Amino acid sequence: MESLIVELGDRSYPIHIGADLLQQGMLLDPHLKSDQVCIVTNETVAPLYLAKVEAALGTRKIASVILPDGEQYKTLDTVAVIYDKLLDLNFSRSATLIALGGGVIGDMTGFAAATYQRGVRFIQIPTTLLSQVDSSVGGKTGVNRPLGKNMVGAFYQPQCVLIDTATLDTLPERELLAGLAEVIKYGFINNLDFLQWIEANLPKLLARDTVALTHSILVSCREKAAIVAADETETGLRAILNLGHTFGHAIETAMGYGEWLHGEAVATGMVMAADLSWRLGMLSQADAIRARQLLQQAGLPVTPPAITKEEFIRLMSKDKKAEQGKIRFVLLEALGKAVIKGGVSPAALNATLAAGNALTQR
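Above: the chain's sequence. Below: its structure in token form.
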């Protein structure tokens, strides 16, 4: 087992990474304030792992909420199901929620924890690669609205993140590839050495080599933990973690939540961000092509769906990074160096959107 600390003063917390950690209740015990524990999971994950976590928690008053599976259920109505369960069981402020599942479960459970009785503890047990390397770390919680993804939420840190790499054995191939998009992102934004390692070890990652996957999770979590510690509430540096997300969130919203997986949309968004960076004279064409080729080799989509330029711009103007309706992008000055840029040339942006549409229509 490897362990990291997200350094946030008196709200610091550990990330434990290793195989078969679900059964190790002693890793959870220090973070439970009372015997009131509610595990929130979904219909896909519950049959696989719920009993293991319940057994690890011993004789506590354990409740569970099993939600439908899918991004389309990441709503306030679904979070209300969690509230109602807690209220029905008279769970107090000393209760702890455990998010057992992917990013959707983690985001909703965290939001429920942030708002139930104005805040109770929660623990992240992510079971998808994407949630293990990204959404479970850093305290972003929330739900989607029809006009925008993750537009209702709160920064609320977990007590602990428990990453059992054995859960990846049951992960569908499409979900694994979506998670690889976020792994690759860390190389693009801040760590050229890691990017080169990914390029060299991509066949192992695609083959689910345990050593390679564990290393990729460890480095990704280390990168994110350092960025979150420096900028918890995304007033500056942390925004670089959103490389590809401005384009990607627009794709998810336009297509309907759940049609494209988050990692798939981010992969295409990163290709578009690299293209825009090149058109603005920030990134070499060779590096923009290199970024596209790596994502393509990882089995990820690299061209957007048929969304009009006007719709893309309308949706991107509602992105959380936008300022008074003006779009801000995370772009690349080089592979391994991301920057935040507003006031992007409309001509360059239109050219990127047109290039994407032209490729889609072939």
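The mean pLDDT is 94.
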